[in-house]
Structure to design on (84 residues):
């Protein structure tokens, strides 16, 4: 797979524009946990909403994360009743 810096940068510009994604990214960084990723609906739906001209939080009920370690992959989900 080849890298497309312009596409990667666009993703990095869009996803943090969702206030909930921004909070998740900021708070997870404060925990000092390495090797984790914001995944699933939080990323996909934020981009889809942006491209469709909708509020970036629209239709997202939960935000997933994946923690990648040397031997395992663990997924965690958090539901946000009142995200911000």
């Amino acid at each position: 797979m080849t890298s497309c810096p312009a596409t990667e940068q666009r993703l990095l510009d869009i996803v943090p524009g969702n206030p909930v994604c921004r909070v998740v990214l900021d708070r997870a960084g404060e925990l000092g946990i390495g090797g984790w990723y914001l995944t699933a609906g939080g990323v996909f739906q934020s981009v889809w909403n942006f491209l469709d001209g909708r509020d970036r939080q629209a239709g997202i009920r939960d935000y997933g994360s994946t923690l990648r370690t040397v031997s395992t992959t663990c997924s965690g989900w958090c539901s946000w009743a009142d995200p911000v």
